[in-house]
């Protein structure tokens, strides 16, 4: 698989988790996990300065508090009508779905049915086969847009797939995500657990680091965080950022490296 294909697949992964509302709103949370405001993505395209200086802590709390949205083919209009709009008052923008479908065509990404073969999944040989693996009612919709089921784009087909084994995505998208992570890790010659990069004490410290610690250390005034950031917290789950329950990395194990640089 070419690098161009992988780059396109990476882009596909990034857009699979969206939802349908007229506007894409980020809820802003107080330290006690109460919503006190919201902001629209449409008003902040290519304008990160205000976000970083005014809302970063509230957004970090929101990321660790809100439930994730369902993965499906419903997209907010902020992404399909106003993507990269130059100014909030502008009545138009770009369409992320159209852009990504065009990218897959530009880079020669195989169709959905062809890509399933790469993933080792059961081949689709008929409309009946397609109906068995797609969300109920979606096959008819797809065949109204495509002259033949073999023409269905990878992005479209993957998002219409039935989810399996309590997964958030179908088997084809799961294959893409797995492939992306494996290749990214294997291609990184500086990945932290490769031989002769860090000693055993340093590796132990690195493995202590959690997303909770990263949120605590890289925010301005976030003072509480739950240990398991990917689980929605109750107030009892919130720990002070200086608590031992959210371990810090001990940089003293890198002191010999500092001494080497001084020499």
UniProtKB/TrEMBL annotation:
An example Gene Ontology molecular-function term: heme binding
GO biological process, one term: response to oxidative stress
Keywords, alphabetical: Oxidoreductase, Peroxidase
One Pfam family from the record: An_peroxidase
Superkingdom of source: Eukaryota
Cross-referenced InterPro entries: Haem_peroxidase_animal, Haem_peroxidase_sf, Haem_peroxidase_sf_animal
Keyword Signal: no
UniProt cross-references to PROSITE patterns, sorted A to Z: PEROXIDASE_3
PANTHER family assigned: GH11385P (PTHR11475:SF125), OXIDASE/PEROXIDASE (PTHR11475)
Listed name of the protein: Peroxidase
